[in-house]
């Protein structure tokens, strides 16, 4: 998105009235947009390394000093038997790898027509998250039941990572954008359409994501034990056809159906943004194109050729995929070392897979492009809720693994409250450093609470086993006395 933040309307038409679908009537002779033209062709190793090192901003350039952790993670994985060190090296190595993927996606987007570039850049921003979700579900052990990650059950981690990705964008990334932008500019005003459309879509997405959880919570106390289980003390259940297994199967089917509908909704959202005469993209570009503090410097920076862009994309995708496979493979050992499932999924994983995108958004906010920065915070959250999360449910369905959208009550509360807090800060159309600091404070409090939240095999706030059944140990004599008391009481 940053690559288009200052793109002028070359045809002289008003961005408010021009549709965003690319026009082929006057294409550039080279087929590449003017802003992405490098003036060269082919692959030049020295130039490639130079452009890669400079990256998109000074902060992103500093991230490149972490590249040695990538080969270190590979060596540790194949040579050493040190799972925690492998996890740590892979975790740190993910930051420059994801940064390269984001930067190369931005370079590719600059060479495309305006809308195509915006949508392509947004897609590349979510590739890391999609790969993470797919690797997690591929490593899930379906026979682990309701145990924690040290037993191979990665569903709680996946569900936490879905919501954690949304919360990280809404609270941490948005808070840092407000904070650092506010340090450089006393107050930053953003267009109302950003907050209205962003907040509205997030509420709709959250509503759709939480329906399976609401369905489960409403009916879990009415579900009878499965036929394989003996009723407690010989008690008879009136509705023995609606069992725990039936309820869980219904929730799974609802989650799969809702996922398909959400993906259709995301396609409609993208089509509307691309074809509408008054698109959110037009609003963002129109208001921010003259605010970029370092626009001239960005335009003068050397750029990748199309060949170099493809090489950078391929290298970054290979590195990201390898490191995520190493990362997920060591989750079992990390959980055994004392890191809770919820903290791992809700905080640690979203932080590393969103790091590059957050750096870009913060740099845009500092340069005065607050609308574009807001889109980098709200847009990925919307895509996670409407596309990425439903996609992993469908992929799990294809793999034959029962991933549903039945989230823990604790996480549901965090999501709803976070959307309300962010919506309240966006309502006035203005931001300052204090609002940013408060959003970061909320995120830190959530991180602290997640650290102390028990693992799924202990806490089942939205599960039948934890709410409807009580594990009671008693002797045979005590059980006979209790049955005698019940018969006496019924006889009277």
From TrEMBL:
Q: Which PANTHER family match?
A: VACUOLAR CALCIUM ION TRANSPORTER (PTHR31503)
Taxonomic superkingdom: Eukaryota
- What is the topology of this protein in the membrane according to its UniProt annotation? Multi-pass membrane protein
Q: Name one GO cellular component term.
A: endomembrane system
Q: What is its main location?
A: membrane
Q: What is this protein called?
A: Sodium/calcium exchanger protein-domain-containing protein
Q: Where in the cell is it found?
A: Endomembrane system
- Record flagged with keyword Transport: yes
Keyword Ion transport in annotation: yes
Q: Which UniProt keywords apply?
A: Ion transport, Membrane, Transmembrane, Transmembrane helix, Transport
Enumerate the residue ranges of region (Disordered): 1-40
Name any one GO molecular function.
calcium:proton antiporter activity
What InterPro entries does the annotation carry? CaH_exchang, NaCa_Exmemb, NCX_ion-bd_dom_sf
Give every Sodium/calcium exchanger membrane region domain span: 84-273, 310-450
Protein family = Belongs to the Ca(2+):cation antiporter (CaCA) (TC 2.A.19) family.
Q: Which Gene3D superfamilies match?
A: NCX, central ion-binding region (1.20.1420.30)
Q: Which Pfam families match?
A: Na_Ca_ex (PF01699)
Native organism:
Parachaetomium inaequale
Q: Name one GO biological process term.
A: intracellular calcium ion homeostasis
Give the stretches traversing the membrane: 59-78, 84-103, 115-138, 158-181, 193-216, 254-272, 310-328, 405-426, 433-454
């Amino acid at each position: 998105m940053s690559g288009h933040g200052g793109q002028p309307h070359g045809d002289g038409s008003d961005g408010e009235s021009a549709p965003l679908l690319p026009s082929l009537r006057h294409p550039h002779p080279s087929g590449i947009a003017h802003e992405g033209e490098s003036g060269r062709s082919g692959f030049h190793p020295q130039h490639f390394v130079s452009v890669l090192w400079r990256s998109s901003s000074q902060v992103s350039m500093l991230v490149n000093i972490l590249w040695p952790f990538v080969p270190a993670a590979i060596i540790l994985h194949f040579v050493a038997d040190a799972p925690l060190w492998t996890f740590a090296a892979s975790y740190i190595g993910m930051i420059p790898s994801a940064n390269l993927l984001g930067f190369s996606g931005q370079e590719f987007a600059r060479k495309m027509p305006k809308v195509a570039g915006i949508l392509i850049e947004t897609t590349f921003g979510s590739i890391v998250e999609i790969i993470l979700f797919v690797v997690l579900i591929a490593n899930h052990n379906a026979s682990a039941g309701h145990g924690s990650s040290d037993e191979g059950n990665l569903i709680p981690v996946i569900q936490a990572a879905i919501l954690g990705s949304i919360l990280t964008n809404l609270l941490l990334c948005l808070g840092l954008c407000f904070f650092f932008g506010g340090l450089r500019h006393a107050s930053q005003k953003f267009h109302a359409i950003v907050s209205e459309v962003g907040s509205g879509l997030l509420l709709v997405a959250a509503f759709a994501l939480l329906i399976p959880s609401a369905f489960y919570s409403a009916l879990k106390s009415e579900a009878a034990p499965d036929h394989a289980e003996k009723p407690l003390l010989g008690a008879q259940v009136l509705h023995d056809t609606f069992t725990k297994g039936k309820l869980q199967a219904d929730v799974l089917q609802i989650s799969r159906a809702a996922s398909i509908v959400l993906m259709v909704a995301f396609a409609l959202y993208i089509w509307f943004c691309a074809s509408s005469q008054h698109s959110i993209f037009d609003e963002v570009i129109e208001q921010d194109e003259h605010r970029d503090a370092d626009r001239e410097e960005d335009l003068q920076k050397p750029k990748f050729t199309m060949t170099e862009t493809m090489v950078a994309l391929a290298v970054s995708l290979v590195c990201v995929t390898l490191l995520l496979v190493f990362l997920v493979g060591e989750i079992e050992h990390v959980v055994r070392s004392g890191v809770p499932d919820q903290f791992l999924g809700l905080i640690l994983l979203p932080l590393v897979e969103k790091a590059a995108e957050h750096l870009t958004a913060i740099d845009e906010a500092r340069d005065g492009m607050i609308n574009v920065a807001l889109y980098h915070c709200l847009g990925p959250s919307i895509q996670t809720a409407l596309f990425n999360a439903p996609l992993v449910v469908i992929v799990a369905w294809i793999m034959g693994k029962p991933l549903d959208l039945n989230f823990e009550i604790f996480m549901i509360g965090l999501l709803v409250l976070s959307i309300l807090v962010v919506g309240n800060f966006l309502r006035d159309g203005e931001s300052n450093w204090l609002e940013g600091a408060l959003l970061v404070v909320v995120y830190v409090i959530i991180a602290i609470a997640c650290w102390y939240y028990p693992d799924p095999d202990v806490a089942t706030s939205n599960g039948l086993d934890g709410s409807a059944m009580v594990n009671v140990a008693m002797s045979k004599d005590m059980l006979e006395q209790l049955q005698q008391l019940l018969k006496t009481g019924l006889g009277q």
